[in-house]
Amino acid sequence: MPFLAKSQGFQVNLFGEKQIGMGHTGTGVALDGAAVVFNPGAVVTLPDNYIQGGVSPLVFQSDFNPSGTNTQYHTLDKKAYPFSFYGAFGPKKGIWKLGLGVYTPFGGLADWGQSWQGRYVLESLDLKAIYFQPTLSIKISENLSIGAGFVYNRGSVDLTKAIPLSYTNGQDGQAELTGSGKGYGWNAGIYYKSADFTAGFSHRSQVTTTISGGNAIFTVPASIQPNFPQPNTFTATIPLPAVNSIGIGLYPTKKWILAFDINYVSWNTYKNLEFDYSKTSTILTNTKSPRNYKDAYTFRAGAQYKASDEVDLRFGTGYGTTAVSDGYVTPEAPDANRVYLTGGLGFKFTKQFDFDLVFEYEHLLSRTQTNIESQLSGTFETNVFIPGVSLAYHW
């Protein structure tokens, strides 16, 4: 149940539609209220105050081909709905601004069904992690500003998998783990701005999220039910990694913005996944599964072209490395190195209202693996499709 920590897999990075359209760049450019998460130091440089919200439905399609066969298993067609909300308030041309971000940096939905080969590893997973981040941004000179925010995370999970204990009709036993938890962290950034060049650095701290008192439900034949005590609860702790980002913005003409980001994720802190049950038996014992993740990078590039006073065109691309080492790939999020393409349209209905549309296609490179713990062996290949829409009011 690695429900919050799967490298790029559940690090959805869907923080703002303008930024998604530009290849997820935003550390070194201040486009709108999403600067609260991309770079708190840039919030005070926004010319307006902002209230905005957006949603980016995520379609995760993964295939698995078991080794030595021509069989293909596919995830069922389900959608997750990562969202974001931002506010930025302060005096115009002042030296401070307050910000608030509510966003979903981790989330996903994968359902492999109950008859595929890896059902004893995973059948389905529904994950939501929501960050709440109040922020203060301060201008310390004409060109330099800083900012920081406190992060409170609220996460929830619903995971099911089969248990290899058959009923008389051949049906497998079932395990379902559901629960919610919380964690705390912080976000900080520094931002430099001149007439034709901007640059920024941001740090999002590790957020250790703990689920206590989650429900552990085991459906097994009556003859062995005493070995799976009910009711039962579990405790698990996941270190959501620290993220460091550096970015620049270039402004070759009044119509063009070019942006480049490098994103470094400290996944090496995620060594094991541990579960402690309130009630155990000779069969149901506490578990400690190795993960041994490594740090990962993402390289991002994007551009915005002002086609008219009312219309902006955006496009971008990126490449991300996986944090999952060979031997540790799992079907919760079968991670691999990935490439993506993005595009977007921005419309200004009035001087105060912005409406943005975006679409992203992401491809995880094919990866053939044998998991060290479960011995699930085969080839994963995954595509992700992400449309998005947002509305912003600024004044």
Your description of this structure?
The chain is mainly beta. Helices cover 3% and strands 57% of the residues. It has helices at 7-10, 17-21, 35-38, and strands at residues 50-55, 58-66, 73-74, 79-80, 83-89, 96-111, 124-139, 144-163, 173-193, 197-204, 207-219, 233-240, 243-250, 256-265, 272-277, 287-290, 296-306, 311-320, 338-348, 353-370, 377-394. It is elongated, with a radius of gyration of 22 Å. The termini are far apart. Mean pLDDT is 92; it is low at 1-9.
Backbone shape: elongated
Measured between the Cα atoms of the first and last residue, the distance is 45 Å
Please tell me the overall pLDDT.
92
CATH architecture: Beta Barrel
- The first-level CATH class is given as Mainly Beta
Could you name the ranges where pLDDT drops below 50 across 5 or more consecutive residues? 1-9
Helicity level, as a percent range?
A: under 10%
Major sheet details: 14 strands, antiparallel, barrel
Order of helices and strands: HHHEEEEEEEEEEEEEEEEEEEEE
Q: State the secondary-structure class.
A: mainly beta
Estimated radius of gyration? 22 Å
Tell me the count of domains: 1
Q: DSSP strand (E) fraction?
A: over 45%
Topology summary:
Elements: H1 7-10, H2 17-21, H3 35-38, E1 50-55, E2 58-66, E3 73-74, E4 79-80, E5 83-89, E6 96-111, E7 124-139, E8 144-163, E9 173-193, E10 197-204, E11 207-219, E12 233-240, E13 243-250, E14 256-265, E15 272-277, E16 287-290, E17 296-306, E18 311-320, E19 338-348, E20 353-370, E21 377-394
Antiparallel strand pairs: 1-5, 1-21, 2-3, 2-4, 2-21, 5-6, 6-7, 7-8, 8-9, 9-10, 9-11, 10-13, 11-12, 12-15, 13-14, 14-17, 15-16, 17-18, 18-19, 19-20, 20-21
